[in-house]
Write a structure and sequence with these properties.
Helix content is about 40%, strand content about 10%. It is of the alpha/beta class.
Length: about 80
Protein backbone atom coordinates (compact mmCIF):
# COMPACT_ATOMS: atom_id res chain seq x y z
CA UNK A 1 0.00 0.00 0.00
CA UNK A 2 2.88 2.31 0.73
CA UNK A 3 4.29 1.77 -2.76
CA UNK A 4 0.98 2.36 -4.56
CA UNK A 5 -0.52 5.04 -2.36
CA UNK A 6 -3.66 2.97 -1.87
CA UNK A 7 -5.68 3.33 1.31
CA UNK A 8 -7.47 0.54 3.18
CA UNK A 9 -10.73 1.64 1.59
CA UNK A 10 -9.26 0.83 -1.84
CA UNK A 11 -8.38 -2.74 -0.91
CA UNK A 12 -10.35 -5.93 -1.56
CA UNK A 13 -9.14 -8.73 0.68
CA UNK A 14 -10.20 -12.36 0.46
CA UNK A 15 -9.82 -14.66 3.43
CA UNK A 16 -11.04 -17.92 4.86
CA UNK A 17 -9.76 -18.28 8.42
CA UNK A 18 -9.28 -16.52 11.75
CA UNK A 19 -5.77 -15.35 10.76
CA UNK A 20 -7.47 -13.14 8.14
CA UNK A 21 -9.77 -11.29 10.57
CA UNK A 22 -7.52 -8.26 11.12
CA UNK A 23 -7.18 -7.53 7.42
CA UNK A 24 -10.83 -8.34 6.68
CA UNK A 25 -11.84 -5.69 9.23
CA UNK A 26 -9.59 -3.06 7.60
CA UNK A 27 -10.24 -3.71 3.91
CA UNK A 28 -12.66 -1.59 1.94
CA UNK A 29 -14.20 -4.78 0.55
CA UNK A 30 -13.88 -7.81 2.80
CA UNK A 31 -14.68 -11.17 1.21
CA UNK A 32 -14.77 -14.67 2.64
CA UNK A 33 -14.83 -17.76 0.47
CA UNK A 34 -17.84 -20.05 0.71
CA UNK A 35 -16.05 -22.68 2.76
CA UNK A 36 -14.39 -20.19 5.11
CA UNK A 37 -14.84 -20.32 8.87
CA UNK A 38 -17.88 -18.64 10.41
CA UNK A 39 -15.79 -15.84 11.93
CA UNK A 40 -14.33 -14.85 8.55
CA UNK A 41 -17.78 -14.90 6.97
CA UNK A 42 -19.18 -12.72 9.78
CA UNK A 43 -16.38 -10.16 9.31
CA UNK A 44 -16.95 -9.95 5.54
CA UNK A 45 -19.06 -7.76 3.29
CA UNK A 46 -19.56 -10.63 0.86
CA UNK A 47 -19.31 -14.41 1.01
CA UNK A 48 -18.70 -16.21 -2.27
CA UNK A 49 -20.93 -18.99 -3.49
CA UNK A 50 -17.82 -20.85 -4.66
CA UNK A 51 -15.41 -22.49 -2.26
CA UNK A 52 -11.74 -21.58 -2.08
CA UNK A 53 -9.84 -23.13 -4.97
CA UNK A 54 -13.07 -23.69 -6.89
CA UNK A 55 -13.74 -20.36 -8.60
CA UNK A 56 -14.10 -18.02 -5.62
CA UNK A 57 -11.52 -15.49 -6.86
CA UNK A 58 -13.02 -15.49 -10.35
CA UNK A 59 -16.44 -14.86 -8.81
CA UNK A 60 -15.08 -11.85 -6.92
CA UNK A 61 -13.17 -10.43 -9.90
CA UNK A 62 -16.25 -10.70 -12.10
CA UNK A 63 -18.40 -9.04 -9.43
CA UNK A 64 -15.95 -6.13 -9.09
CA UNK A 65 -15.55 -5.62 -12.84
CA UNK A 66 -19.33 -5.63 -13.30
CA UNK A 67 -19.75 -3.09 -10.48
CA UNK A 68 -17.13 -0.90 -12.17
CA UNK A 69 -18.92 -1.29 -15.55
CA UNK A 70 -15.76 -2.88 -17.01
CA UNK A 71 -16.98 -6.46 -17.51
CA UNK A 72 -18.22 -6.06 -21.10
CA UNK A 73 -14.92 -4.48 -22.13
CA UNK A 74 -12.93 -7.36 -20.66
CA UNK A 75 -15.16 -9.93 -22.37
CA UNK A 76 -14.95 -8.10 -25.69
CA UNK A 77 -11.15 -8.24 -25.59
CA UNK A 78 -11.37 -12.04 -25.74
CA UNK A 79 -14.24 -12.22 -28.23
CA UNK A 80 -12.22 -11.05 -31.23
Amino acid sequence: MRQTGLKWGDVCYVGDDVVDLGVLRRAGLAVAVGDGVAEAKAASDYVTKAHGGHGAIREIVEMILKAQKKWKLVVSEYAD
